[in-house]
Amino acid sequence: MPPTIQLTGADATTTGDFSNASMRISFSVVHLLSAATFSRTTGAIEAANAGKPLGDFWDDLQAQALAVVLTAVAGLEAFANELFVDHAEVFPELRLEVMAKLWELYEQKPILEKYEFALLLRQGKPFDRGAHPYQDAVALIKLRNALTHYKPEWSDQQIEHAKVSSALQYKASPSPFFPSSESLFPRAWASHGSTQWAVRTVLTFIQAFEQQADIQSRIQPYVARLNAL
Q1: pTM for the complete prediction?
Q2: Which of 29, 40, 109, 148 has the most C-beta neighbours closer than 10 Å?
Q3: CB 222 within 8 A of CB 32
């Protein structure tokens, strides 16, 4: 049974009868494996059209790249939420009512704040906010937010778009289908290299968190599949 599905019930695991079992599905890994799949498809479209001028294929390529960013960040947030849902395992020293109150305060916090709070509770080494992988995660979330709450700007009057492009500089890879003068945001970031960076950013961030929090890795069984981009 996939580890993303947890079952409770006296006879469910021995008889295969799940009618009286309680089931809970964790979606962080599902999101991340989906992002990896979308990244591979992005690469296939890019390779199939190498050297060609921009054409109809761009719609499919951009859609796949967009899906990578959305699901990768969804996976990053879902993983954080699952840590707090599994508080008895992750934060066993905290009483149930204390953990419930803390989660009430932190559930709506930004994604990276949830990880920083979890590290604080685990008495782990905090992230260096000015270094990798924290800065890459910040840039990826900024890209997701800019795409989700998109506001158009003229190409010669960019303000917010320029900020996103700056955050992606030296992280995302420019699309080979646009001239080098094209800003990374809102279009030229959509490349196979950028989708690889997005998935690996989340994977590296989660691995760093698990190490610094000194908890049993939940992501390790999927590392090979998440690196197949």
Answers
A1: 0.89
A2: 29
A3: yes
